[in-house]
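Following up on my earlier thread - several people asked me to post the actual chain instead of describing it. Fair enough. Here it is, all 247 residues.
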Amino acid sequence: MTRRAFALAAAAALPLAARNPFDAFSDGTPDFLRLDPADERIFRRWFTFLAEAQYFQPREARPPEIVDCAALIRYAYREALRLHDSRWAAQARVPLLRAADSIAAWHYPDRRLGANLFRVVEGPYDPADLANGAFAQFADVRTLGRYNTHRVARDLADALPADLLLYRQDSDRMPYHSMIWLGPSQIARDSHRYVVYHTGPDGKDPGIIRRLSAAELLRYPEPEWRPLPGNPFFLGIYRWNILRNPS
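Reply from S.P.:
Thanks for posting it. Predicted structure:
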């Protein structure tokens, strides 16, 4: 067990009263960002809807920032945390979700963090982090996995919508890669469960957004991309730290 994993396990075992008063799980995420169960449901619906909607969008209609797998994740995460009013819908060029309101706890950009939404350094949260560069607008897949999410399982049956599937490959071009677990589609009504991801650029090829069913992914021709516990390239299923509720 790494020193970081040991520290997180030790923090989780402490009574709430003995934990970091600003960061109950010592995972670097301030407690003021964590969502209660009602907000968690809203976040999961928006995050997965926004990511899947980009698969159906023509490339020229997508936000230009979406150029690789991390960019798709950052986009869906940030926009899921905004206030979803008609002005936002017009700017985002996506329909409003029926029966899915905005989260109630806070909205991006948060008044305390501003636009710097992603944790980029190791260690538990401290109020000084608001001004010392511990948070930034950009985070690659490795940073998303290490400082903004936590591993919950290696079995796909344990994944919930909005979880991330993380991989580390023997590649200089893109050693870390991630897919978004959608679960059931909110757009194509069928019985399948899906992942969506951006392949990333390869030379002059800008890459594409793919959506695969769980069955297709588990039978993927290249076995290093199959999310199986015995696959050494599959790091596991990761869940956002803001969905850890200290209560």
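The mean pLDDT is 90. That should answer part of your original question.
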